[in-house]
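Hello again,

I reread your note about wanting to compare the complex against the isolated chains. To keep things tidy I'm splitting this into two emails, and this first one only covers the full assembly. Below are the input lines as submitted, including protein chains and any nucleic acid or small-molecule components. They are followed by the predicted structure of everything together. The single-chain runs will come separately.
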Amino acid sequence: MSNITYLEGKEPDAREHRLIFRNVDRADWDNSIDCYIKDGGYEQLKKAITMEPQAITNEVKTSGLRGRGGAGFPTGVKWGFIPPNNTKPVYLICNCDESEPGTFKDRYIVHQDPHQLIEGMVISSFAVGAHTAYIYIREEFPEASTILEKAIEEAREKNFLGENILGSGFNLEIYIHRGAGAYICGEETGLIESLEGKRPYPRIKPPYFPAALGLYMSPTIVNNVESLCHVKHIIAMGGEEYAKLGTPRNTGTRILCVSGDVQKPGYYEVEVGKITMGELLNDICGGPKEGRSFKAVIPGGSSAKIMRCEETYQIKNADGTQQELSFYDIPMDFDTIAACGSMAGSGGVIVMDDSRKISWVLNNINHFYAHESCGQCTPCREGSMWMRKISDRIANGEATPEDVQTLEEVAYQIDGRTVCAFGEAASWPVEAIISKFRDELEAETSEDNEYLSEEAKRQLSFINQ
Amino acid sequence: MDTATFPPFAVTPEIEAEANKRIDQYPEDKKRSAVLPLLHIVQHKFGYINSEATEWVASMLDLEPMQVYEVVSFYPGLREHAPGKYHMRVCRTLSCAMAGSAELMERICELTGIDRSKSDSHHNPIAVSPCGQWSVEFAECLASCGTGPVCLVNDDFHEAVAPDSAQELLDQYDTAASHS
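Full-complex prediction:
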């Protein structure tokens, strides 16, 4: 990669491995197809289109690629879920609804390197047998929507899209579908409902696994932007070579997005599991701000459970042995972070230092989920708003210690009792923050809270007699 | 109050052509999928979506107006009330809030004379300045957490907008800004 230079001040860190983000912040680069082709672009499509579709899926399975949207589900396995004797049209949907708080990676791909995504989508569509693909892009990326529409036209002009692609007989159209500001459209079945023109109320799985009953109740593969880009590189180097990047069962590279109380927030593409939390926060991101110390980190987007920086974890290794791991020694992979009680999710690493009141953090997060609840399931619809009201009171110093307990109980009433994973997304932050910062939260409450109304005080006085 | 920033809703051949182009993106018997694309066309040209526009979208897609309205009323990004000429969406979610987005919103409101307590009745309310040039709303995570606070002004994206650079931000659009 020595022939690549980056814009001044935006050079990758030495510990990065720029695969997907190879062209982000690149000097002498633009998002046109001519620039992309001159750099060797679409050669992988030319190669893939001569392969058997199943062979492409096999390469993706061998590569061990896990979805980069947040769930980390093996991509090759997901592709394999399309029913074998399917006669309905197959659809490929690119999930470009990037909305998980703390995540900012797909943005740069679609703005600066749209053809990498398109090439990945054509290869993937060919593999799964889709002739129509949609890019569901969040409305708040208006410029990217225009860029992608232009890129699609450029690709069609060069016969990388449309009818009889490169003489292979394979037809594919890609269309852009803009969202309208709803986080729940990032949930694959919510996205599908939105694409169908309805309110994005997610579907229950089973039976509505998109690979079986997706868009228009036809087999549909929904993949994250970054995941689809990885497909191109898997074809380029082969699944086996790709699997040598990263660590076992956590292969390849991923883009970590660090924000909050660090010296150098930003995006960093690293081999999965080869960088520890400490290396990321202290070495790559320059440590905490002047005069501050790290307090807590949310490692995978706001839906991931918070971790205290002073914690140690007892985890079981793959070979069955026990290991004690300190927070800073956690490798940034999927499995170890899960073993430590959180999740690597979307790669959105949010860092809080000792200047942050945890009740404020909790309240900000609760407002997000209360706002974004689609309202379909009673526990989530009622519970998310209830949790927000309680954390409003805690953050404003108007709560009693019992409120913390009630808040925790409400969270557990939502967790596991909803149609989609938003229920967990909304309840896990509350569960984890209370579990790990209970003392700090209770310290902000008061039995004898002066903000309580006269009526409430009178009632309490009867209970406390 | 200034004269209307946006023209009143009216269908033109250009708008119909644009709508049909979007409708053609979906299978012939699945026109309903074009609800959001058509609503985006309306909102982009007319600033917001009123009942006339809702009925037009319904008629283009062989739907009942309620089937369109349920979409209009659900999505935070769809407006039922006119915004200002420059509509600002400031991110309120965790990382941007940590970087000062609440203070940024306060500064913007001070400079433009917007009173956010007088927002409209939508579940995702917007508030418009007295002169009609500016409007604001809080948006949820805009996916640029490393460069917060961030905001959108119409379709322009602005990163690292420190609260005390709010005037600079407004000046990029209208140097005669603020109360009128």
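For quick reference: The longest strand of chain A covers residues 130-137.

B.
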